[in-house]
Amino acid sequence: VDASIPYMVKPHPVTGIPNGKFGIWLFLASEVMLFGALFSSYILLRSGAPQWPPDGGFASDYLNVPLATVNTVVLITSSITMVMAWASLKQDSLPRFRLFLGATIALAFCFLVIKYFEYSHEFLEDRFPKTNNFYAIYFTMTGLHGIHIIGGIIVNLYLLTFGTKLWFKDKQHFTNRIENAGLYWHFVDLVWIFLFPALYLL
Amino acid sequence: MSDAPASTAPATGHDAAESFGDHGEVHVKSYVVVFVALLCLTLVTVGISYLHLTRPVAIALGLTVAAIKSSMVAAVFMHLVSEKKVIYAVLTLTVLFFLLVLLLPVMTSGGNLSNL
Question: Cα Rg for chain B, rounded, in angstroms?
Fold first, then answer.
């Protein structure tokens, strides 16, 4: 009896795509709503405040724009290395895939380290989520985003190590997995593209 | 695929290389172009913020640049330029609900967004 799950590699006749890819898109749709609710809260908090940031001035007076700019570049770079990791598999090159996925993971760690410096600076200055609504929404949104970065690192680390075994059994299946991991990773980048101006610049 | 055959002669080097599988072509050149564009637009956003324009103008500009950047990521890195209908359907529904959620504050605060 063939007990393998159907349409893991071949496109499902109804959707035209493998089930894994359909699944990751549905998951991303739910993620849009999760972050959407927080962006909505951000608009509500901001529009309800007498001034924003609460203590006057600009957001850039309170948050470190140069560091966040570097982090934006880091994340954008990790997005192209991620798509290149997938492209390398499509071109049948496992060594290049390992190089690019490794770079993606390294850049993700880099993002977290920079974020750590930002957070610790805020804490040193006695600024916490409880300080005011500005910091509350800042820490909530960047915190949730940071958790997503950690999630991506875990998945990508698995795919770079133990997960690679699948390549030797079924190239297409493994390539599809990397594509799905990539879709998630690009989404995390996409969220940051909005978070950065919303929190730091506007 | 949008930027497929006609325009460019026989695929140069590894760009748009022949790959196994039945979907998802590789377009290395597009990835690099988008990457450079994203870097430039990041600098543009940061640059604009240092001008300290009036809030409405700054917000409009900031969101426009962010929208352009995110569209490029979605279209090229996430291959949305050439996806199956079912994904477009899911995303259309998602965008509708996303806009609804974003508009909730406007609907509940009686349209008083003057402090933005």
Answer: 19
**DSSP state, B79?**
-
Tell me which residue has tokens 């799905």.
A180
Contact A47 B116 (CB under 8 A): yes
Q: Which of B32, B45, B113 sits opposite A201 (nearest CB)?
A: B45
Question: Smallest Cβ distance to B31: which of A58, A84, A202?
Answer: A84
| Contact between chains at B115 and A50 (C-beta distance less than 8 A) | yes
- Give burial (CB, 10 Å; 0-12/13-18/19+) of A50: exposed
Nearest CA in chain B to A36: B98
- In sequence order, the 6+-apart residues with CB closer than 8 A to the CB of B73 are A79, A186, A189, A190, A193, B34, B38
Which tokens belong to B55? 């809030």
Contact between residue A200 and residue A68 where contact means Cβ atoms under 8 Å apart: yes
Which CA distances in Å does B37 have to A50, A131, B2, B44? 37, 37, 19, 10
Nearest to A62 by CA among A127, A143, A141: A127
The per-residue pLDDT string of chain A (202 residues; one tens digit each, 9 = 90 and over) reads 667 778 888 999 999 999 999 999 999 999 999 999 999 999 989 988 999 999 988 999 999 999 999 999 999 999 999 999 999 999 999 999 999 999 999 999 999 999 999 999 999 999 999 999 999 999 999 999 999 999 999 999 999 999 999 999 999 999 999 999 999 999 999 999 999 999 999 8
Phi and psi dihedrals of B21, rounded to 5?
A: 90, 170
Reported ipTM: the value is: 0.92
DSSP assigned state of A12: P
The answer for B78, left when phi > 0, alpha when psi is -120 to 50, beta otherwise, is alpha
Q: What is the pTM of this model?
A: 0.89
Tell me which residue in A175, A189, A198 faces B73 most closely, judged by beta carbons: A189
Distances (CA, A) of B46 to A156, B20, B50: 30, 41, 7
